[in-house]
Write a structure and sequence with these properties.
54% strand; elongated; 9% helix; 7-stranded antiparallel beta sheet; single chain
């Protein structure tokens, strides 16, 4: 078993079209995470000793942060999506070609500009419908 370095786990946004996707990495990304979960409802009764539940819906989200670079097409696509209230197709890839893929709504895109530092960004993406993993 070999461990995957964090630098290999990258967010890519579709800078092509829906018919012909072309994925561009967020060039100066420093951190990325994917969260996958399920919403449940309690199905326990007075007769149950242990809690029981049923899965209702699945959900997923992606977040990331890094430094902003002028002309970063991946970042620009996400900023455009939040400004125009459109969904974006994203992929999260590892070096061994494992890929999470799906449509997202950009919940927030924040820029941080310290007085004597480099402009940074953080992004929060909410999954829309199915997340695939291959």
């Amino acid at each position: 078993m070999s461990f995957v370095k964090g630098s290999a786990f990258r967010i890519y946004s579709n800078t092509g079209t829906i018919a012909t996707p072309s994925y561009t990495a967020l060039s100066c990304e420093g951190q990325a995470s994917v969260s996958v979960g399920n919403s449940t409802t309690d199905t326990s009764s007075k007769c149950d000793v242990w809690d029981t539940h049923e899965i209702l819906h699945s959900n997923w989200s992606v977040s990331g942060s890094g430094y902003y670079s002028d002309g970063d097409a991946g970042v620009d696509e996400l900023v455009d999506a939040v400004m125009t209230r459109t969904k974006v197709l994203v992929q999260i890839k590892t070096l061994d070609a494992k890929i999470f893929s799906g449509n997202v709504t950009v919940e927030s895109f924040d820029f941080d500009s310290p007085h004597d530092g480099v402009v940074g960004f953080s992004v929060s993406l909410k999954g829309d419908s199915t997340l695939t993993f291959a």
